[in-house]
Amino acid sequence: MASRRGKQAGMARRVFLKKVGLAGAAMSAAGLLDAGKTRGASSTLRWSSAQNPGTLDPLTNQFDYAFPPFSTVFEGLTRYPPGDKWQAVNTLAETLEQSPDGKSISFTLKQGIPFHGGYGEVVAEDVQYSFYRAVGKEKMYPDAAKEDTSWYAGDFGGLQEIKITGKYSGVILFDKPFSPMVRLTLPYATSGLIVSKKAVQTLGKAAWLKKPIGTGPYEIVTYTPNRELIMKRFDQYGGAAGQSASAFPWEEIRVSLAGSGATTTGAAMTAGVESGDVDFTYGITPLDAQRLQGNSELKIYGLPQPLSYNFVQINVLHPKLKDIRVRKAIRLGLDIPAMIQAQDLDASTRLNALIARQMGVGYWPDAPVYERNVDKAKSLLQEAGVSSLELDIAIPGTPPATSKDVMQVIQSNLADIGIKVNILLSPPDSYVKDRAVGQLYWTNYGGAPDPYYQFEWFTCAQLSLWDWAFWCNSDYDNMWSQIAIEENEAKRTQIAIKMQQLMDESAGFVWSNYQFTNAVTRAGIQGAFDPNGNPIVQYFKPT
Fold first, then answer.
1. The predicted structure's pLDDT at residue 24
2. Nearest of 392, 397, 419 to residue 407 by alpha carbon
């Protein structure tokens, strides 16, 4: 899984979540969503300020988890339904059974589930083809170029073979157990979604990317990157999610898409929903949510995102920061509650280690809580023989709206212990790639519902990629391999705690908080979201 992004992936989940959570579209939502169209009784759901997915292929998109339209157009063997519990339920699978040794997963499909576009029903061969396509055992398209490869082969661990045992049944075989398959790949990642073998091979790359074929309750009508996506209800929906097509209230879902690099926030982002021209906007700031609370025409949603996290990385290899006493001084010099407040968030979002309580598996309840201690921080710097220290801090990529405010808090905090901090709003690429350049990083990463994924970004393989602390520990890497194959949740948690203890001992990471976003709908609409606050728009209902 360490190579899941590759060079082609561009902006993947961790960077994307910063943008979709706290940023919006740069274009007029009302104009894109055909505001002049008479609504009447025709039930069209209009969503403004949505982030562009890049492509609509489950294996080469910028989301890499089942954010709309993927959760709307496609289905997998299992899924996480709306609510606050990470409990996967069968979808295309009638039965799913993992062997005691964790090296095989047997499945039986529900029968008579049709694909969009008249491409027949889902059979075991489609499951085999979808997963083989993901890991490179099948070409992405019949006319695939050499560079057309899946970004997410790592989601399948050591997948060895998929044996078809009947028209609707098969066995997924691994060379060794891979625990994230059940918690992450099948119910959450786009790589686990099932596509029609016949459709891909008939359409070829260009046509497939314009209108991919799934089994979900909605099908693609048109997709214009960076502008608009239109979906319509699939009238022949097979009911894999336990509902008939008529149970989904929206005849059409129209989504305006943000342009590349768009960062509009505030009133410009919420204008469409305030005027009644659109029905739903996601990713508004806490201040905007507060501003709209008194509007009886709107419904505001506060959405915790406990799998996604904000923290400071300290480059442990930089000459100025190699002394652990300096790193510990920085950790004690930071006022975490003030950093959280600068994001307009509640103190309850604080994290003391990587894995949030809401994850369950991997949570470290006794993680140390570092309270600010200026005197002790100064003493550590004195012991290290450090004075007049000057450091840079940056947030690579497109930062959330509050990033500068947080970095100013850090700047002020560290000034109190004698460290001058320069804020770099546009750092060079070398800031994350060169261990001799980057120093401090205010970081916002997205997560997934398995600790294996959270820990991946701090392995030795991630140096100069996502591990901006430039911390490499062989024991940590070995435990990361162990947590992938261990099936017992209690044992996985013990491994995860030891990994977090190693991170803590390095003093290369200062945990701040899990992320939180807000959404707004018209008052006559009830939204639906997964446990990490992601919208599942097919379950939105008029009230």
1. 33
2. 392
**Distance (Å, rounded) from C-alpha 410 to C-alpha 387?**
18
CATH number of the domain bearing residue 381: 3.10.105.10
Report CA-CA distances (Å) from 280 to 218, 430, 523, 531.
18, 39, 10, 19
Instruction: Give pLDDT tens digits for 173-219.
Output: 999 999 999 999 999 999 999 999 999 999 999 999 999 999 999 99
The DSSP annotation for 411-447 comes to: HHHHHTTTEEEEEESS--THHHH-TTT--EEEEEE--
- Judged against a pLDDT cut of 90, whether residue 91 lies above it is answered with yes
Centroid of chain to Cα 521: 22
Question: Are residue 166 and residue 313 in the same domain, yes or no?
Answer: no
56, 163: one domain: yes
Q: Are residues 509 and 528 in the same domain?
A: no
Among 185, 181, 99, residue whose Cα is nearest residue 484: 181
Same domain, 461 and 531: no
- Residue 1 within any structural domain of the chain: no
Give the domain extent around 475: 306-515
Percent of the chain at pLDDT > 70 equals: 91
Residue 8 in this model has a pLDDT that exceeds 80: no
CA-to-CA distance for 69 and 66, rounded, in angstroms?
A: 8
Q: Which amino acid is at 330?
A: I
Q: Are residues 501 and 527 in the same domain?
A: no
What are the pLDDT digits (tens) for 118-169? 999 999 999 999 999 999 999 999 999 999 999 999 999 999 999 999 999 9
326 & 273 share domain? no
223 lies in some domain = yes
Beta strands in 269-416 (DSSP E): 280-284, 298-314, 389-394
Full-model pTM: 0.89
Average the pLDDT over 495-522 and give the result. 97
Q: What is the pLDDT of residue 259?
A: 65
As a dihedral over the C-alpha atoms of residue 398, residue 55, residue 183, residue 509, rounded to 10 degrees, the angle is: -20
DSSP 96-145: EEE-TTSSEEEEEEPTT-BPGGG--B--HHHHHHHHHHHHTSS-SSTT--
- Cβ atoms 81, 89 nearer than 8 A: yes
Q: Does position 29 have pLDDT exceeding 60, yes or no? A: no
Identify the CA nearest to 410 among candidates 490, 503, 476, 335: 335
How far apart are alpha carbons 60 and 71 in whole angstroms? Answer: 15
Number of domains in the chain: 2
pLDDT of res. 262: 56
Same domain (yes/no): 533, 465: no
CB atoms within 10 A of CB 163: 14
Q: Residues 456-473: what's their mean pLDDT?
A: 96
> Residue 9's pLDDT band (boundaries 50, 70, 90)?
very low
Answer yes or no: do 249 and 310 share one domain: no
User: Do the domain assignments include residue 492?
Assistant: yes
Asked if the structure places residue 294 within a domain, the reply is no
Write the CATH number for 110. Answer: 3.40.190.10
Q: How far apart are CA 182 and CA 161, in angstroms?
A: 17
